[in-house]
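In the design runs reported in the main text, the only information available to the sequence generator was the tokenized backbone. The following block is the verbatim input for one such run; it is reproduced so that readers can re-run the procedure and compare outputs position by position.
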């Protein structure tokens, strides 16, 4: 005699219930309010449509339902102090299940110690390296303006040197060119005939 085939049905079960912060065990919490977290599984052979979960009288609707073999976690603010926590999945009996007798879980659940707050990772302070100020005429970058700088400018102007160490300092008269005029002004400055550079 053949048995009557049973229809595939979901079976919603609360697999775990515990008290924790809404952020879980993360140290990055902004509130120390504790609540009850329930983990729910669909252990049946079909997907479940929308259903309601109730914990200690508070309800949340799971609009998307729960596919077979899937789990989900919900957090409810607050908890029943000094008594058992009560959780009920499919509290409004919206889902036809293969087993309607395993939808409730009542337990004494320990109240946890809060995790230590996070220690912020120090942000390294970037100290900019000061850019040395090169004086006008200091073409060898030795922080002194003297006759050697004038000689280097003359060699550069005669194409005996391809570049100068501090070439930007060589245009003493700021005319946009490096020439013997710049070397002449440097020599006058070095001899004390000019008070300052650039001229």
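Verbatim output:
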């Amino acid at each position: 005699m053949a048995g009557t085939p049973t229809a595939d049905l979901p079976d919603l079960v609360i697999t775990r219930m515990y008290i924790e912060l809404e952020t879980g065990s993360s140290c990055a919490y902004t509130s120390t309010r504790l609540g009850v977290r329930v983990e729910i599984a669909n252990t049946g052979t079909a997907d479940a449509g929308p259903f309601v979960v109730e914990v200690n009288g508070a309800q949340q609707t799971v609009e998307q339902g729960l596919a077979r073999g899937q789990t989900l976690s919900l957090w409810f603010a607050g908890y029943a102090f000094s008594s058992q926590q009560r959780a009920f999945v499919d509290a409004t009996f919206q889902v036809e299940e293969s087993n309607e007798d395993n939808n409730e879980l009542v337990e004494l659940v320990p109240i946890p110690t809060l995790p230590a707050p996070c220690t912020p990772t120090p942000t390294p302070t970037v100290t900019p390296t000061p850019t040395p100020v090169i004086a006008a005429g200091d073409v060898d970058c030795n922080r002194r303006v003297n006759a050697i700088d004038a000689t280097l400018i003359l060699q550069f102007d005669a194409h005996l040197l391809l570049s100068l160490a501090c070439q930007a300092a060589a245009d003493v008269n700021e005319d946009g060119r490096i020439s013997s005029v710049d070397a002449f002004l440097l020599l006058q400055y070095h001899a004390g005939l000019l008070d300052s550079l650039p001229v």
